[in-house]
Amino acid sequence: MENGAAQPVIVAIDGPSGTGKSSTSKAVAAQLGLSYLDTGAQYRAITWWMVANGIDIEDPSAIAAVAGKPEIVSGTDPENPTITVDGTDVAAPIRTQEVTSKVSAVSAVPEVRARISELQRSIAAAAEAGIVVEGRDIGTTVLPDADLKIFLTASPEARAARRSGELKGADVNATREALIKRDAADSSRKTSPLAKADDAVEVDTTELTLAQVIECVVTLVEEKRAGK
Ligand SMILES: Nc1ncnc2c1ncn2[C@@H]1O[C@H](COP(=O)(O)OP(=O)(O)O)[C@@H](O)[C@H]1O
Ligand SMILES: Nc1ccn([C@H]2C[C@H](O)[C@@H](COP(=O)(O)OP(=O)(O)O)O2)c(=O)n1
Which of 210, 212, 213, 217 to mutate to test the pocket of ligand 1 (most atoms within 8 A of CB)? Predict the structure, then answer.
């Protein structure tokens, strides 16, 4: 069978919050020598800019009017992913509760999605060895011709436990409710909602360790590259 290792490989990893997309994508990219793009960080970055500039998050037309203004730059080294807005490092401020609670509203605005999706496609096209891109609509909308599409899932309980562990003892029930609310908003928006592509491989990570999920995805990429 022909070995396509010289061709850039494009991997799309989608799924709801806390399913392991970021940890898995970074590790798979590092292991296979690919670039890595966290598209959620880009939506968080544009949301951070809207908040910092006093834009009314309740008003989609106000968001749409300025969606083209901030310059968002993503560094795609899986060992050291970076994100800046107009030259400012925003890696920490995009993770605040305030940004997390507003990101679904901002990312539902079609002008925001058009702008960010275009940026994502140009980053993927520039990745010489290939790239692992993680998000919500990568397999369905941003990169529908990806070589491999993965859709990660996990029970709300497992996802909340993982997230509240990260947030140093945050209340698991409150974290669970916030996750469910954000997933519902992301899944029900009109423009490119969170969804599994028909040709995506679904991996339920509830009972798997992170190492098992990484191994599973690496194997799937290697099988693709080997032309299986
Ligand atoms: N299979 C797993 N088992 C246990 N913990 C996991 C697993 N996958 C990820 N985690 C942990 O859960 C948290 C959320 O993972 P993350 O990769 O950020 O998810 P997502 O990007 O889907 O929101 C992280 O602390 C991560 O280390
Ligand atoms: N491709 C994407 C990625 C993220 N988003 C939106 C919807 C998500 O709630 C937010 C934040 O995504 P992020 O992956 O950082 O979220 P979590 O790590 O799961 O907390 O961005 C999106 O609309 N489309």
Answer: 210
Task: Please report the beta strands in the chain, taking only residues with DSSP state E, as ranges in sequence order.
Answer: 9-14, 35-38, 72-75, 82-85, 88-89, 130-135, 148-153, 201-204
23 lines ligand 1 (CB under 6 A): yes
Which residues is 131 bridged to in the sheet? 10, 35
Q: What is the pLDDT of residues 25-39, one digit of tens each?
A: 999 999 999 999 999
Residue 228 lies in a domain: no
Cβ atoms < 10 Å from Cβ of 55: 18
Pocket flag, ligand 2, residue 108 (CB < 6 Å): no
For 105-162, write each residue's pLDDT tens digit: 999 999 999 999 999 999 999 999 999 999 999 999 999 999 999 999 999 999 999 9
For the chain, how many structural domains are there in total?
1
Assign residue 24 the CATH number of its domain.
3.40.50.300
Determine whether the annotation assigns residue 18 to a binding site.
yes
What ipTM was predicted for this assembly?
0.98
Amino acid code (one letter) for 102: K
Q: Measuring from atom 10 of ligand 2, which residue has the nearest CA?
A: 40
185 found inside a domain? yes
- Structural domain includes residue 53: yes
